[in-house]
């Protein structure tokens, strides 16, 4: 039980509800409001009307005439996504971002139980970001992803080894990642509807009919998936930012946020044995102007106090005439320490 898959619930629609609380309890559809637009997603209320992602807007408007159609605000969704990922990176550097609202975590090196970590992620995202996320916990990526989809929204599902293959048997073949519409249609023509039906097919048959995909299916439905969690190569920066609950003008108040961020950034650098040379403070004013100010040092730093010192210096140099609605801190110009392997190994020994 070392892999967690997290996937935000009705992500774009949930962000709309977060920013515009008057939408709560109503069917919310993001995109598709214009003449030729397409639905990006719909909240769970709108889904009851049959509205779903990639549906032409005109169709959604017929199915759900009372729907609240919202324009797509990609920049805002990216911003919220960053906040969510910053929570994930606090847990482990072994995070594989799959999309704007989805990631795998490898928590095998953690002292904490994977299910407890998943619970922590859920409550942390709820408290800090205000959104619900579904999480799946299992011993490989395929099963963790299947689990996160198990009881959406706000789901938490654990799939253990001894549940395999029984728990998979009743599932329709489409639930198996990799089986799309076309493959499902071909299987249906052969009278194969569920995983149970699939389990009866010999490996050779699946291979000759579907090629490599057939082999993958054969393994996955038996709970075999050796794919590693691939940490996105070369992280260019470490940062944290937050949209403030109420706009803030006092520098001392803003510094408190900066100091908290510095602490978690420093921890992240420490964990990965990375040093940074550039510190950036980002802020957005109440009139929605976004600015960032950086300072590049002669030397590399990692320590929390050093980051704070530079960040405070930057903040002191900023003239603040109006309240801030967002504050952020990041470090970049990174350098990986050569002793990474050794110190990582050291940490492992200390744990035992
Ligand atoms: P998903 O995670 O597939 O969907 P979702 O988060 O809206 O709903 P849930 O996970 O609860 O089933 O996609 C994440 C976001 O990506 C989604 O909110 C909108 C966007 N998206 C598109 O723009 N077009 C698409 O066709 C899909 C599937 C998603
Ligand atoms: Mg999602």
Task: Give structural attributes.
352 residues, alpha+beta, Alpha-Beta Plaits, MutS, DNA mismatch repair protein, domain I, DNA polymerase, domain 1, 4 domains, four-stranded antiparallel sheet, 13 helices, binds thymidine-5'-triphosphate, binds magnesium ion
The end-to-end distance, rounded to whole angstroms, is 19 Å
Instruction: Give the DSSP E fraction (strand runs of 2 or more residues).
Output: 15-25%
CATH architecture of the largest domain: 2-Layer Sandwich
**CATH classification class of the largest domain:** Alpha Beta
Small-molecule binders here are:
thymidine-5'-triphosphate, magnesium ion
Backbone shape: globular
Q: What is the fold named in CATH at topology level of the largest domain?
A: Dna Ligase, domain 1
What strand line-up does the widest sheet have? 5-6-1-7-8
SSE pattern: EHEEHHEHEEHEHEHHHHEHEEHEH
Low-confidence stretches: 338-352
Q: Care to count the β-strands?
A: 12
Number of domains: 4
Mind summarizing the main beta sheet? 5 strands, mixed
- The CATH homologous superfamily of the largest domain is named DNA polymerase, Y-family, little finger domain
Rg (C-alpha, Å): 23 Å
């Amino acid at each position: 039980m070392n892999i967690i898959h997290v996937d935000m619930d009705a992500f774009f629609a949930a962000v709309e509800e977060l920013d515009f609380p008057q939408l709560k309890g109503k069917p919310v559809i993001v995109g598709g409001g214009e003449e030729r637009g397409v639905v990006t997603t719909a909240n769970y209320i709108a889904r009851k009307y049959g509205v779903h992602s990639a549906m032409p807007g005109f169709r959604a408007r017929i199915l759900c005439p009372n729907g609240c159609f919202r324009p797509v605000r990609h920049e805002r969704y990216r911003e919220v996504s960053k906040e969510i990922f910053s929570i994930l990176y606090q847990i482990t550097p072994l995070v594989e971002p799959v999309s704007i609202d989805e990631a795998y975590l490898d928590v095998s090196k953690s002292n904490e139980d994977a299910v407890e970590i998943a619970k922590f992620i859920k409550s942390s995202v709820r408290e800090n970001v205000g959104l619900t996320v579904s999480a799946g916990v299992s011993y490989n990526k395929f099963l963790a992803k299947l689990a996160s989809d198990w009881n959406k929204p706000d789901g938490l599902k654990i799939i253990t080894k001894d549940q395999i293959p029984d728990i998979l048997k009743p599932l329709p073949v489409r639930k198996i990642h990799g089986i799309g519409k076309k493959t499902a249609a071909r299987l249906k023509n052969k009278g194969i509807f569920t995983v149970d039906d699939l389990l009866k097919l010999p490996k050779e048959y699946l291979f000759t009919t579907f090629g490599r995909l057939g082999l993958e299916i054969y393994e996955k439905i038996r709970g075999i998936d050796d794919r590693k969690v691939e940490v996105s190569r070369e992280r260019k920066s470490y940062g944290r930012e937050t949209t403030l609950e109420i706009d803030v003008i006092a520098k001392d108040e803003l510094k408190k946020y900066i100091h908290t961020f510095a602490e978690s950034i420093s921890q992240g650098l420490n964990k990965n044995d990375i040093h940074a040379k550039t510190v950036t403070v980002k802020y957005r004013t109440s009139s929605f102007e976004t600015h960032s100010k950086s300072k590049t040092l002669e030397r590399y730093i990692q320590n929390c106090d050093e980051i704070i010192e530079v960040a405070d210096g930057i903040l002191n140099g900023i003239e603040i005439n109006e309240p801030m609605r967002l504050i952020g801190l990041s470090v970049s110009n990174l350098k990986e320490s050569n002793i990474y392997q050794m110190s990582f190994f050291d940490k492992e020994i200390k744990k035992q």
